[in-house]
Write a structure and sequence with these properties.
Layout lengths: L1 H22 L4 E5 L4 E7 L20 E10 L10 E9 L2 E6 L10 E6 L5 E10 L6 E9 L2 E4 L8 E6 L5 E10 L9 E9 L2 E4 L8 E6 L5 E6 L13 E7 L2 E4 L4 E5 L7 E2 L5 E7 L5 E7 L2 E4 L8 E6 L5 E6 L9 E7 L2 E4 L4 E9 L5 E7 L6 E5 L6 E2 L11 E8 L5 E6 L6 H4 L1 E7 L3 H6 L29 H15 L12
Antiparallel strand pairs: 1-33, 2-3, 3-4, 4-5, 6-7, 7-8, 8-9, 10-11, 11-12, 12-13, 14-15, 15-16, 16-17, 18-20, 19-20, 20-21, 21-22, 23-24, 24-25, 25-26, 27-28, 28-29, 29-30, 31-32, 32-33
């Protein structure tokens, strides 16, 4: 009996020592990046609340890029009468810099940063002040910000194009409309869309897989480009548009990566992802185009990564080691399945859990730390999370000072120093899209360091504009019919890349 009591006492002692260790996580100093006088700001990955097309918004040196609203009304807005123009920003060491537009820094035009490379160069988009004669929508060009200057990269014939990514050599990829009429465009524009590669002042049309439309969305350090392209000009019965496959462009040749049985690629999450090993990750519909799965392509083989037991799933990032993360459905009746963030590694998909309800993974670093968003039980909004060391998921709001200026709603990027960039909501704001602020979390040496620096919480220009409150339109249920999938894809492309003309097209 005494032996049993002794063993129990020892076990309790050990548990008492281990539980605090298990519960320990790095604490963070929160810096609210503020705005340029308007109500909102966001980092590059998730302008529309995500998951969006995750871009590189945070470097390993702690530089953040994105866009922030100004105090000037947007003269081209088709969504509201009091929408504000947005300008691309760069935050570094406490300074929020307005990167300006093709109309200058004091312009009421809109610009957005989409990607930053290790040299601090930024690729993105800026309105020009003109109008696209083919659509009647505001004209916009891809731009490159280099050492404080903005460069107009031009287009392939029409007054609309955008940059989506760049590498460290300064090669930029994206897509451009070319002014050639196209009644069956998968981009739902009245003219053709073409994938481009820009370098040293020259914009190259990368061609297609047999159709007339394509877009480039990723480039690696070897100059390989990944994107999507129509394979023909024959509309499918399920979608009403031609078949769209992912491609890998390598040394002048566009390679068709195939599909998982369906006719549409890039339907949810990011359009396409590419690592420095030449592996491509994305999403493809299955036969019938009513469901879709994440895939990983490498060495000529497309692998279905599956789901967590439900109908659909999509990827949000791929590492150079070939690890893939994303979001996938759980078992349940079709149309009402829950979904969790996942990490796929070496053939195994791991459920990252939740803070109470659904979860979405958004960023990962080389140490395997993952950030994203999840809804706690009883919370009206999502909270940013951190997953590390095999879990469980932890609410990032519990790792910042209690009197912080934001409720952290999204964790979009995490760098190799453990710094985290995302979006949160200030007091009085109930919609992160309307009045959320970009933030960066910086790991503290200890809890005292965090608490003594809580007065350093806002960088750049303060937001003095009235907060806007409106119901969130973010859906927590994946689309289930082929036309719902198509409509969601079109809406995401429109909002993510400021293609105003897409909004004029019917959604059903």
């Amino acid at each position: 009996m005494r032996s049993n009591i002794s063993m129990l006492t020892t076990l309790i002692t050990l548990l008492g020592l281990q539980l605090p260790l298990l519960a320990q996580h790095t604490r963070y100093k929160l810096i609210d990046l503020g705005t340029f006088g308007g109500p909102s700001s966001y980092i590059a990955p998730s302008e529309d609340g995500g998951p969006g097309n995750p871009t590189r918004a945070l470097t390993n040196n702690g530089v953040v890029v994105g866009a922030a609203s100004t105090d000037m009304l947007d003269p081209f807005s088709q969504e509201c009468d009091d929408c504000f123009a947005q300008h691309a920003f760069q935050w570094q060491q406490g300074v929020l810099t307005d990167l300006g537009t093709l109309g200058g820094n004091n312009s009421d035009l809109t610009s957005v940063a989409h990607w930053i490379n290790d040299r601090g160069w930024v690729a993105g988009f800026s309105q020009t002040g003109g109008v696209d004669s083919f659509t009647g929508a505001p004209a916009g060009h891809p731009v490159l910000w280099e050492n404080g200057e903005i460069f107009d990269l031009g287009t392939l014939g029409e007054e609309f194009a955008t940059a989506t990514a760049l590498n460290n050599t300064g090669q930029v990829v994206g897509f451009s409309f070319d002014g050639v009429p196209d009644p069956i465009s998968p981009f739902f524009n009245p003219t053709e869309s073409r994938a481009f590669l820009w370098h040293s002042g020259v914009m190259q049309d990368l061609g297609t897989l047999g159709g007339v439309d394509a877009g480039a969305f990723a480039i690696n350090e070897a100059g390989q480009v990944a994107g999507i392209s129509a394979t023909n000009t024959t509309p499918n019965d399920t979608t009403g548009i031609p078949t769209v496959h992912p491609f890998l462009w390598d040394r002048g040749r566009m390679i068709d990566l195939g599909s998982l049985g369906g006719t549409l690629s890039g339907v949810d999450g990011p359009t396409i992802l590419l690592n420095n090993r030449g592996q491509v990750a994305g999403t493809s519909t299955l036969a019938g185009d009513t469901t879709y799965h994440p895939f990983l392509w490498g060495h000529g083989v497309m692998r279905d990564l599956g789901t967590l037991g439900g109908d659909t799933g999509f990827v949000t990032w791929i590492t150079d080691a070939g690890d893939v993360m994303g979001t996938a459905d759980l078992p349940g009746p079709s149309g009402s399945q829950n979904h969790h963030a996942f990490l796929w590694r070496n053939g195994v998909m791991t459920d990252l859990g939740t803070l109470g309800s659904t979860s979405h993974a958004e960023g990962i670093n080389s140490q395997g730390q993952i950030v994203g968003r999840s809804t706690p039980i009883g919370s009206p909004i999502q909270h940013a999370f951190l997953w590390e060391h095999g879990g469980p998921m932890v609410d990032l709001n519990t790792l910042i000072p209690a009197n912080s200026s934001l409720v952290l709603e999204e964790g979009g990027n995490i760098n190799d120093r453990g710094e985290i960039a995302g979006r949160g909501v200030p007091p009085g704001c109930d919609d992160v899209d309307a009045c959320g602020h970009a933030f960066i979390l910086i790991p503290c040496d200890n809890a005292v360091t965090c608490e003594t620096n809580i007065d350093v919480t806002t960088a750049g220009i303060q937001n003095n504009a009235a907060l806007i409150n409106r119901p969130s339109t973010t859906s927590t249920q994946a689309p289930r019919t082929e036309m719902q999938i198509l409509s969601a894809w079109r809406a995401r492309l429109s909002q993510r890349y400021h293609i105003r003309a897409l909004g004029a097209w019917p959604r059903d």
